[in-house]
Design goal:
heterotrimer, A alpha/beta, B alpha+beta, C alpha/beta, B: alpha+beta, 4 strands, C: Rossmann fold, six-stranded mixed beta sheet, 4 helices, 20% strand, globular
């Protein structure tokens, strides 16, 4: 018991054993959804209870925990979950990807490469990749047993026929070790390649749906695609406005009500550490000196419209660098 | 900070303080006590206990107070507390035939042994707002009945059973221990014991709507309220070291047994079928709805085609829990801007492709 | 007179968590030797790591098959796990004499819809012989392990497995996704062998 009167990391020992047993089976059958006796947690279902139960079951006193939501350590849900573990487990927390031993995430994989010994814990709202095509669990379970994933391909192909593209941009289904179709959780498909042969152990928890699953290190994870329509990820026409990164997932930030916007890294720690290392993006350069107005367009041209010369506004919002965070 | 939804711990803490202040309301008005809630809002407390799956009037009343009267929030609070409790063992099955009855009615018999006992019911009150309660009117004094009720009233529906007119309620072959839904995930097909557990803690509004749908033609079960009873039943456990049952307390429950559409054939003598509902506390509407849904869900075993929503076990059982449903519906409040950004990028790209193709098409036209 | 039972974990929460992480690592990185991070004594014939794994994973929800009943009182007392005679009904099996163990197919294999409902076997062996780059002695040419959790491939010899074991293992892998998962134990060391791991004799 910790000082709060609750068990270490909230869950009682029996519940942890039950989840731990499920996790061992999950690792042994990569991509297969193991049912587990998910508990009500003091956070609502759908708000990360699966990830929290997995983290609570793996976490030890020596771990260093990072929690992100939408790639950021600072969003309210990430703050709340980190606060929960700091309170019930008294573990060290960090926002540095490289320092963390356990990273709980919702909707993103950090940009910095993961390493051996790290554990990623994904919050999963809907573990069944075929659920939107087939609502009945009894049916999808049989399809997994038969490895019959034909209609998932049909669905993607119908997209191509209708839109000319596969219209799935996040929670893009993957095949794990050539056997199980798996939901990677609602990460943007941009992050899918990071799942493939990752040196980290990747655990997935769906609390409301009462399933855990896993991808062991160095396991094949392939996004579904077609020869004539190979899988591709999102690309942006410009780098991050703050750190200049051209290899990260960018959030679109609306600056004003006149169509002004800029694009910045969704992974706030990646962006901050790049800025700390001296990288700058167009917004910083624009901020400096007389070229500001001329370069404002670099900040976030959208359909040919430069960001209005509201550099006052922009600079006020750009104040967040490593020094001020 | 450049992203509006980012917020620090301070914002979260401040929101909590605001909530506590709003819950307390006007400080000039005296604070409601947990004992007052447990004693005077007992039906609200009963629902929190039933759907929170924890029989504890004080904690349920506390949850209601903390939730400012929001039942689903109170149920969630009680469930989250309940998961942390150690499990000592399982009780013996409740024997509702030995209930100390406070209310017992049957719609299928004009009269039955022990009589119709109305008890504390809203049924025949005229729904007129009682303005005397505004002034804090005193409750009337209840006169003792000349004849006390018998200690135990036989279940009306059992009278039909003696004649073989209703299907017997037999344990499944081998009498296996029922699954414990609070410890094990639901899987399909789900047996009746599992289904009843799910319904017992299912959302009253959801069950009410589904039960109602069966009366409006979405499945045909022709229900009659065979018997509804409410009162106190003994809770017994068998400690391993003793080997016999001892009573550890009693709880209030409401039980509803519906008598439904008979089944049979030219060779099998027809029998009425059953639907069952049980919940903690006084919960008549809930148990009646539950009994209707239970009967509808038995369609497969009774040879009926599962066509209506209330007959779809996976649909009903997967969506009955208001803690799950409330959480997931409301999780849409959480930031989703990364996924939205992904969609936005695709939609823009597709629109741009169409826009650049359009003029060409116009020229050829 | 029965000898007094050995104690369980000195720090139940903490030790259970550390043993679990060791087992998780073992199954996530097959073929890598993991070592118990603290001293632990288990009753004969259980090796320290077998006993520690048992306390970390077993409770009243896990039917256990014991090859030798000697540790039964200790397990019943500390873990409260039900013991079963039929290996097919066990979720965990504790095997101290690999030479006399039943074939892998005697244990629960899982179901096509629920392959997780298969047994996990803790099998005690004499030791592990990693592909050591010893300068003097002959380099041990252990079998080659590959599969999820292994970057490329790894060589690891296991001392004390019965003849024909790897053929039996190959049969187990042939039924994927059904099949058992193994934790091989030597003293305080553990190596994971999940059903996805292919082992080729060199």
């Amino acid at each position: 018991m910790s000082a709060t009167g609750y068990n270490f990391a909230y869950l009682d020992p029996q519940t942890k054993r039950m989840i731990r047993r499920a996790l061992l089976k999950a690792v042994a059958i990569p991509g297969y959804q193991v049912p587990f006796g998910s508990r009500e947690m003091p956070l609502p279902y759908g708000w990360g209870t699966g990830g929290i139960q997995v983290t609570a079951s793996v976490l030890g006193r020596d771990d260093v925990l990072k929690v992100i939501d939408q790639g950021s350590d600072d969003t309210v849900n990430a703050v709340n979950i980190r606060r929960f573990f700091a309170r019930t487990a008294d573990v060290a927390t960090t926002d540095r990807t490289a320092e963390a031993t356990v990273i709980q995430t919702r909707h993103r994989i950090p940009e910095a490469p993961l390493a051996e010994g790290q554990i990623m814990v994904y919050q999963v709202p809907e573990p069944e990749p075929m659920r939107r095509l087939e609502p009945r669990e009894a049916v999808t379970r049989t399809l997994h047993a038969l490895a019959d994933y034909g209609f998932m391909h049909v669905k993607l192909y119908e997209d191509i026929a209708r839109y000319g593209h596969i219209a799935t941009t996040y929670d893009y289904p993957v095949m794990v070790n050539g056997r199980y179709l798996m939901s990677p959780s609602p990460i943007p498909k941009f992050d899918n390649p990071k799942l493939h042969r990752s040196p980290a152990l990747q655990l997935f928890g769906a609390g409301r749906e009462k399933r855990v699953y896993a991808v062991p290190p160095y396991t094949r994870v392939e996004s579904l695609d077609f020869e004539d329509h190979p899988f591709s990820v999102q690309r942006w026409d410009e780098p991050c406005a703050l750190c200049g990164a051209d290899d990260s997932f960018l959030d679109e930030v609306v600056l004003d009500d006149a169509g002004g916007r800029m694009f910045v890294c969704s992974d706030s720690e990646y962006c901050a550490s790049r800025q700390h290392a001296g990288h700058t993006g167009p917004a910083h350069r624009a901020q400096r000196g007389s070229l500001a107005a001329a370069r404002a367009g670099e900040v976030g041209i959208e359909q040919g419209k430069p960001v209005p010369a509201s550099n006052d506004t922009a600079s006020a919002r750009l104040g967040r660098g490593p020094a001020s965070s | 900070m450049y992203v509006a939804v980012k917020g620090g711990e301070t914002a979260i803490l401040n929101a909590g303080t605001l909530l506590a202040q709003a819950r307390r309301g006007d400080p000039a008005v005296s604070e409601v006590s947990v004992a007052q809630i447990a004693g005077q809002l007992r039906l609200g407390v009963a629902r929190v206990m039933a759907e929170g799956s924890l029989y504890d009037e004080e904690l349920a009343a506390l949850a209601l107070k903390q939730a400012a009267g929001d039942q689903v929030e109170a149920i969630f609070l009680l469930r989250a507390y309940r998961t942390t409790l150690p499990r000592f063992g399982y009780s013996q099955p409740l024997d509702t035939a030995r209930m100390a009855v406070r209310r017992r009615i049957s719609a299928t018999f004009k009269e039955l042994p022990g009589g119709q006992v109305l008890g504390p019911t809203y049924d025949y009150t005229q729904r007129l707002l009682d303005f005397s309660l505004l002034a804090g009117g005193e409750a009337p004094v209840v006169a003792e009945a000349a004849q006390p009720l018998p200690e135990h009233l036989p279940r009306g529906i059992d009278l039909l059973g003696e004649e073989g007119l209703i299907e017997p309620e037999l344990p499944p072959p081998g009498d296996p221990a029922p699954a414990d839904l609070s410890r094990e995930p639901l899987s399909f097909p789900a047996g009746r014991a599992t289904r009843l557990q799910n319904l017992a803690r299912g959302d009253e509004g959801f069950l009410l709507a589904l039960g109602y749908s069966t009366q409006r033609g979405y499945s045909h079960t022709h229900p009659f309220a065979g018997e509804i009873r409410m009162g106190e039943v003994a809770l017994e456990v068998v400690p391993e070291e003793l080997g016999f049952a001892i009573q550890i307390g009693e709880i209030t429950v409401t039980e509803c047994q519906m008598v439904n559409q008979f089944a049979g054939s030219s060779t099998t003598p027809p029998q009425f079928t059953r639907g069952y509902g049980l919940a903690f506390g006084e919960a008549e509407r809930k148990t009646m709805a539950m009994a209707l849904v239970d009967r509808a869900l038995r369609c497969a075993e009774l040879g009926e085609e599962p066509a209506a929503p209330a007959q779809q076990a996976e649909f009903v059982l997967s969506h009955s829990d208001n803690v799950e449903a409330g959480g997931f519906v409301q999780h849409l409040k959480l930031p989703h801007y990364v996924d939205f950004q992904s969609e936005l990028e695709l939609v823009r790209r597709m629109r741009a492709a169409i826009a650049s193709a359009q003029p060409a098409q116009e020229q050829t036209a | 007179m029965n000898a007094p039972l050995l104690p369980g974990f000195a720090q139940p929460e903490d030790h259970a968590q550390r043993v679990f992480r060791l087992l998780l690592d073992a199954l996530a990185r097959p073929g890598r030797v993991q070592t118990l991070p603290f001293e632990f004594a288990a009753p004969a014939p259980l090796a320290p790591a077998t006993g520690a794994a048992a306390l970390a994973l077993l409770d009243y929800e896990t039917p256990v098959w014991l090859q030798s009943a000697d540790s039964a009182p200790w397990l019943r007392f500390h873990a409260g796990c039900p013991l079963v005679d039929d290996p097919a009904r066990a979720r965990f099996a504790l095997i101290d004499d690999a030479g006399a163990m039943p074939p892998l197919s005697a244990f629960a294999q899982g179901e096509p819809e629920y392959p997780d409902r298969s047994a996990t076997l803790l099998i005690q062996v004499a030791g592990f012989a990693p592909h050591a780059s010893t300068e003097r002695g002959p380099t041990l040419r252990g079998p080659i392990w590959s599969g999820p959790g292994i970057a490329d491939e790894v060589r690891l010899g296991v001392v004390g497995l019965p003849d024909g074991f790897w053929r039996d293992w190959q049969r187990n892998a042939g039924h994927f996704p059904l099949g058992v998962d193994l934790l091989l134990v030597a003293g305080a060391q553990v190596v994971g062998l999940p059903r996805t791991t292919t082992v080729r004799e060199a």
